[in-house]
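From the pipeline queue, job 12 of 40. The input is one protein chain; the requested action is below.

Action: predict structure.
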Amino acid sequence: MLRALLCMLCFVFFSACSKPEYQGSDISGASLGGDFTLMDHKGKARTLADFKGKVVVMFFGYTHCPDVCPTTMIELKNAMQQLGSKADQVQVLFVSVDPDRDTQQVLNQYVPVFDSRFLGLTGNATQLAEVAGRYKIIYQKQMSSSGDYTVDHSAGSYLLDKSGKPRVMVSYGAGAGVFVHDLTLLLNE
């Protein structure tokens, strides 16, 4: 009996000390992130504090992106479907890195196509550079000979816990299953 009790206490002790095993990269404690104010695709000013109590997925991209952005948005859409009712405790934020083209109206036509709960965020070039800098996002216009451009940008997604602290970085192309796994861990904290 005493042996069983000791074994149970050891199990509880070691379980409490272990860190969650994310499938994405654990960035807990990294010096990045922070609050911001940007406009959503519905015309409302949003801050990170607006989503306190929810797990937040932040993805930086742009609506004219030919590959990375729509692929990631589809993975997030599929993850939300797989989460079922738990998805209501998650907020996906698509933060534009192309303020010249990604107006509120453009984001309003793009972001809800993937999931009506997703929010597109934009601001002026200075605001977006500040937010991107806080999250160590790199982006740069690449002009073509026709005068059009693409935007090279960091392609990972950040998962923030219910208090707004960055906890996980999910690499591009990881798949919906990685999002579901890591979001479930954060939701259960």
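Job complete. Strands lie at 25-26, 37-40, 45-47, 55-61, 90-96, 119-122, 139-143, 149-153, 157-160, 166-170.
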